[in-house]
């Protein structure tokens, strides 16, 4: 269990996250859940895949998150002619020095925006694999470390759009979570016309946090306690995807790790130093669904991976409090994403 000093630092650092959240929501109207998930992935040291039709603010969300944090930012426009070396970098022979000199690619930034990632060839997409998992790049046998914090925010159009390449399973598995923006409500769209009508709000957006603040936040998230019963619950959810009759590919062990990391970040965002089972439940769909492949029969029946995950969440028993849990007693089970537990630590708050 975390110490008093760990809890105090966690409470102090939530103010930083609150500033970032308000900054992003000042540009992205009417999408608080999407903004929260983006911050969750950032604090969990993951990568975010934003998928939706054109024009709903995918790139705007990525740019706003990047600009709200005083980190180095690089944007990569994925096109069919983009080469892997454009992303990772290349060694160039220097005539004067008579030696090879490494020229870093666009991946050498703290926040990397991959715009329309599925418009590049699979060969170019695979250039991100090592950097996303191991946070390093290997060129000509030489390994180069990437800066910290490091996060890839990739956007993509649905695969049925013309001129796109579906992301391979290994690539999708590197993304901690997938989120769809969705169309705004009429009220949010009217507000968008007022805010974005004359000038872009990004023009006046100033950083509200620094890179070292995010590193401290990430360190604080690592101290969040996860009870043995909650860990078992996460494993059972993921394992249930591997033998579900509607799925031909279940979630990987990496998905289990990502689910627990995201749950710890979600708990920290709520001002808690311990994970509740509903942290795991609320993140099951965004963390697991994009990794799953439905069977042909399920596709004919219009069964989506999101529906399968919700079914599994509703079926797996929720753990109750135990000697090592530290989170209270479960009162009900739900797949709606709402509050599942009456107990909350005094002084905790949701951002």
Care to describe what's here?
The protein is α/β, with parallel strands linked by helices and 351 residues long. Helices cover 42% and strands 15% of the residues. It contains 14 helices and 13 strands. The protein has helices spanning 4-25, 32-43, 58-68, 84-88, 122-125, 129-134, 169-174, 186-196, 211-222, 228-241, 253-269, 277-288, 296-300, 305-315; strands at residues 48-51, 69-70, 73-77, 89-94, 99-104, 111-115, 136-139, 142-145, 151-156, 177-179, 209-210, 247-249, 293-294. The strands form 5 sheets. The chain has a 5-stranded parallel beta sheet with strand order 3-6-9-1-10. A hairpin with a 2-residue loop joins strand 7 (136-139) and strand 8 (142-145). Residues 1-8 and 322-351 have low confidence and may be disordered.
In short:
The protein has 351 residues and is an alpha/beta fold.
Topology:
Blueprint: H1 4-25, H2 32-43, E1 48-51, H3 58-68, E2 69-70, E3 73-77, H4 84-88, E4 89-94, E5 99-104, E6 111-115, H5 122-125, H6 129-134, E7 136-139, E8 142-145, E9 151-156, H7 169-174, E10 177-179, H8 186-196, E11 209-210, H9 211-222, H10 228-241, E12 247-249, H11 253-269, H12 277-288, E13 293-294, H13 296-300, H14 305-315
Parallel strand pairs: 1-9, 1-10, 2-11, 3-6, 6-9
Antiparallel strand pairs: 4-5, 7-8, 12-13
């Amino acid at each position: 269990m975390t110490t008093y000093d760990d809890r105090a630092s966690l409470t102090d650092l939530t103010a930083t996250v609150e500033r970032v959240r308000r900054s992003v929501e000042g540009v992205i109207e009417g999408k608080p859940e999407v903004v929260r998930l983006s911050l969750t992935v950032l604090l969990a040291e993951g990568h975010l895949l934003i998928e939706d039709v054109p024009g709903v603010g995918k790139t705007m969300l990525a740019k706003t998150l990047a600009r709200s944090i005083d980190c180095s930012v690089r944007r990569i426009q994925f096109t069919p002619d983009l080469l892997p070396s454009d992303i990772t970098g290349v060694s160039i022979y220097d005539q004067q020095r008579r030696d090879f000199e490494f020229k870093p690619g666009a991946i050498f930034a703290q926040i990397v925006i991959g715009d329309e990632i599925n418009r590049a060839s699979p060969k170019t997409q695979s250039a991100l694999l090592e950097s996303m998992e191991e946070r390093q790049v290997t060129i000509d046998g030489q390994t180069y470390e990437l800066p910290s914090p490091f996060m890839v925010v990739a956007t993509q159009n649905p695969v049925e759009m013309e001129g796109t390449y579906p992301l391979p399973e290994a690539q999708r598995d590197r993304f901690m979570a997938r989120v769809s923006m969705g169309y705004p409500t009429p009220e949010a769209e009217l507000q968008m016309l007022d805010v974005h009508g004359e000038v872009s709000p990004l023009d006046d957006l100033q950083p509200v946090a620094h890179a070292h603040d995010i590193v401290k936040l990430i360190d604080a998230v690592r101290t969040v306690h996860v009870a043995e019963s909650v860990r078992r619950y996460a494993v059972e959810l993921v394992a249930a995807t591997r033998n579900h009759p509607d799925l031909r590919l279940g979630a990987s062990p990496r998905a289990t790790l990502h689910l627990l990391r995201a749950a710890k970040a979600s708990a920290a965002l709520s001002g808690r130093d311990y994970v509740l089972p509903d942290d795991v439940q609320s993140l099951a769909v965004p963390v697991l669904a994009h990794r799953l492949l439905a069977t042909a029969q399920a596709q004919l029946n219009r069964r989506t991976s999101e529906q399968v995950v919700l079914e599994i969440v509703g079926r797996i028993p929720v753990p109750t409090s135990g000697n090592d849990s530290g989170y209270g007693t479960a009162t009900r089970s739900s797949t709606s994403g709402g509050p599942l537990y009456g107990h909350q630590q005094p002084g905790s708050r949701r951002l």
